[in-house]
Amino acid sequence: MSKSRNRRPTIIDVAERAGVSKSTAARALAGSSNITDDTRDRVLKAASSVGYERNSLAVGMRSGRSGMLGLVIPDITNPFWAEVARGAQDKAAESGSSLLVFSSDWDAAKEAAHLRALRQARVDGAIINPVADNFDDLDRFGLPFLLIGSSAERFAETSSVGSDIAQAVQLGMDLLVSKGHPAPSLILGPKSRLARARFLRAVHEHCIARDVDPAILDVEDGEYTVEGGRIAMRRLLERDRVGHVCVFAANDMMAIGAMMAVREAGLRCPDDVSIIGFDGIPSGEFAWPGLTTIAKPGRDLGARAVEGLFDEIEHRPEHRRIYLPCRLIERGSLADLSVPTPKRVSGAGRG
Predict the structure, then answer these.
(1) What's the distance, Cα to Cα, between the start and end of the chain in Å?
(2) 320 compared with 255, residue with greater pLDDT
(3) By three-state DSSP, how is residue 160 classified?
(4) Under DSSP, is residue 10 helix (H, G, I), strand (E, B) or coil?
(5) Residue 283: CB partners within 8 Å, gap ≥ 6?
């Protein structure tokens, strides 16, 4: 009787094809050292020919490990978080693990549901960017975990990895000052987010160090999206002001939205409005003009988070906050006001 095409190949099929016992086939596939090279080769070729795949769940039940890790990020559509996920996936794959990625969409209820799903999936551990700064389910999570993002700073006893926001803001503000923009307007995230407070604090500290009163800075809040930046920029442009406008946006998506609002207002970047972003997402390179930004190390952050999670799983955590440095990417969205613009003389150049 022929075997059903819909039946999943088993270890017995592999053993029959290789001409060995079921236990020998299992030991060969598990990498056992007491199997000859010839036998191992025959078993591996047999497994490939019948389309056999090891049952990870069954292996995990025996070993206590599932070979799966979880990652909960706030917005998979944001290219920065996609980079984080890619870095985590690559590092997990190097160790033979798979990564389950969930997007909470900045929704605490969705985040809680994702954490339940990870427990039910019996993942070995999880990397979490808490949506709420008062995230209180950590003690009840029941699995090894590591935090990423700004909210992690509220949990001093928990291992975490994040970008060095203070260093990044310093880079941006130093560049603005060098180009004649000592007091930029700010487009920040929602007041409920710790990331907003950290960004604003770093800007204020820079201003105070240069004897600039932070109270003179115009500030608009919005969502960390293109539309959020677009709306915030519109509000900034509605304010009474004289001269060139400079904006430091808290992420690149907001900065790109701000550039759209500038065009819609009949103005030009950087002739009328200078804009600098934060994150270093690829789309900033293709904006017009190209977006000057402070790039956060997304892939490196994801990879380092997986390394730290393995430490948690193996019970060797250091319980510390790792800050990764950011870098400056200069493009064309900032006017250089430090260089006087030559005045045009009426009639000059005419024959």
Answers:
(1) 98
(2) 255
(3) strand
(4) coil
(5) 79, 252, 256
